[in-house]
Amino acid sequence: MYHYPIEFIPEGKNSAAYYSADPPKNLVVFVHGFRGASVETWNDFANALPLTPGFCRSDIIYYGYDSMEGQAFDQAADFLAFLDRHSTPRSALRPDNPPVYEKIIICAHSLGSIVARFALLESIKAGFAWRKQCKLVLFAPAHNGARVQSLLMLSLPGFYKVLGSLLMYNRPVIDDLRPGSPALVKLESETQKYRDTGEAPILSAQVLHAFGDKVVHNAPFCYDTFCTGNPVRGRSHVSICKPEMGIYDTPIQIIEALL
Amino acid sequence: MNQQINDIRFKALALNFRQLPYIGRAAAAFEKAKETGELATLLRFHGDEAINLTEELYFRDDMDFFIGYYAIVTAALLTGYVSAPAPADLVAEGMALLGNEHVARYYTEYYPLILPQVFKTAVLSPAATGKDLAQQELDRQFELLLLLLRSRMKDEDIDSFLFLLDDGAFRVGNLGWVDIARLWDLIGDNRELQKIREEPVKYQQVLSLISGFSKFINYLNEYAALLKRASYNPLWHAVAWELEGYWFTRLKTKSGDTLKQGLQRLGELVRAVSMSGNESNEPLEEWQSASAGELVQAGESLNYLMQEEHQSLAQQLNL
């Protein structure tokens, strides 16, 4: 057994953790996107990671939040509080929790990328020591903006897409996702500010884009790097972050390489 | 099963489902009601005397979750996720709760639930031996089932919608009383939805109900998919169905058809929506096609969950 049974944690919404049975070295945090769900957005990750030897010393947390509420920056503030609390191992099931993690890998999808990056920017301003352990992996990030109509009509998971697109236009977070919004302008300018500083490695994300993504704008952002040379074909905005064991293992391989 | 893993799993179940504020509240209220002799009244059948007082509603809600915890433990035992012996305090509390005559009448006569009825047998049964690969896969699915259940339990929008589905109604500003029929009218009319969209604060309750409807359908889709994945193991399958037996039974007797009416109204709306101005029609057409697919899947999930053969746990356990 590499990991303990699922442990629900109170922060966010339906956040769930799989803590390592052995003293952990790393924390891997997953942050879903617009109308996503803590675990379900990530599909086979929840099945695959507990069985993957490379993750045996990693605590895995699926962070959930109500992406319909508030603005992206508001969600980032909550996520920052969560990160600060969980930057030290704290499983209730594991008898001995070590004092620190060596690495904290934050994997985010779509809107979650904006939430995660804003949170890390604030962690720099706050001077949190744990920020130096962080690395970002972003799947179909929305940091260049989203085609809002497509976001609402095509990317909402499952049954949400039926009614969601008819009801969600007035949500503040939708404004945040429009190209050139104040939130995205601020995100870029604040990230650029740290380009040639010691904070750059924290904010320099590894990015995976879906070829022909119908929802977000694929383009370089600040000093991020692309995980694969080209956008991934055969995956969509929704499926780019969902590994399928034996068919599409790229997301798992990217994260495992960072551990 | 490795005893250490077994102990950890019992501990995880308690951490995730017993150590919740409303369960603690229920346990304390249960003890107090026993002392004051009010338990029979508080747990009466609603058909004999309506439940109107807020305190009574809260007590019964909390007790449902308290009994529900032991239903989850029973399910975990029956599916092999955990094995006896269970922790002594769990056994003692479970026996005291489920063995109480008024509680027992509540979940056997008034609102029949099978899992609490077999708790005693399950918790005293000999431990299962061995852990083959198939069982490991079922254990993973059981944890995903717990995640799914937990997401439904804590969701206020789903709660509000299920209240409506159970013949409840809310008073909403200038809309008056909104029951399930009125909700379907609202959902089926794009002009009404536009009003709601433009004044989200004023129509917050309605938005919550619509969100609850979406979430509940999504929940049923995921539950049906999970049951289908485990269909090769009839006992596991039956136990997993029984964990939501109350709602799934009501799907068959009443609310399934009500939900289908809602899906039908929604289908009409989806077909009728058109773009205005200079916006491209491509996303709209793709959305209409995808939404039609979702509506079909929702109907299939409902039909699957309503099938007669799902209600077979009693037969499998020879009850």
Automatic annotation (TrEMBL), chain A:
InterPro entries: AB_hydrolase_fold, DUF676_lipase-like. It comes from the Bacteria. Residues 25-122 form the DUF676 domain. Pfam families: DUF676. Gene3D superfamilies: alpha/beta hydrolase (3.40.50.1820). This is Putative serine esterase DUF676. It comes from Taibaiella chishuiensis.
TrEMBL record, chain B:
It comes from Taibaiella chishuiensis. This is Uncharacterized protein. It comes from the Bacteria.
